[in-house]
Design a protein that fits this description.
This protein is mainly alpha-helical. It has four helices and two strands, in the order H-H-E-H-E-H. The chain has a two-stranded parallel sheet. Strand 1, helix 3 and strand 2 form a beta-alpha-beta unit. Helix 3 packs parallel to helix 4. The radius of gyration is 12 Å and the shape is globular.
């Protein structure tokens, strides 16, 4: 298992932990919008994973992705890119 995947896996965050997404994020997901903001780090990767799982469970609709980030960890950014692809 790669370094990034191990980092995400070791966090032991349940896949469907409802309080992991705030009210704004849940509202955007209901509109098929995935908003990625702040530093690109393991918690952001967990958010993207959970959001994509929720969207997939809803039938894999077309989504809009908004990214507003100043940067962060390259490995985590590449892992997020792979999840979105």
């Amino acid at each position: 298992m790669g370094k990034v995947l191990r980092l995400i896996h070791e966090r032991s965050v349940p896949m469907w932990k409802h309080d992991n997404l705030d009210e704004v994020q849940l509202g955007l997901l209901k509109k098929n919008i995935l908003a990625i903001g702040g530093e690109i780090d393991p918690p952001n990767a967990i958010y993207v994973r959970e959001a994509l799982l929720r969207l997939t469970a809803a039938g894999s609709p077309e989504i809009t992705i908004n990214i507003t980030s100043d940067g962060g960890e390259v490995d985590i950014g590449l892992a997020i890119f792979d999840m979105i692809r």
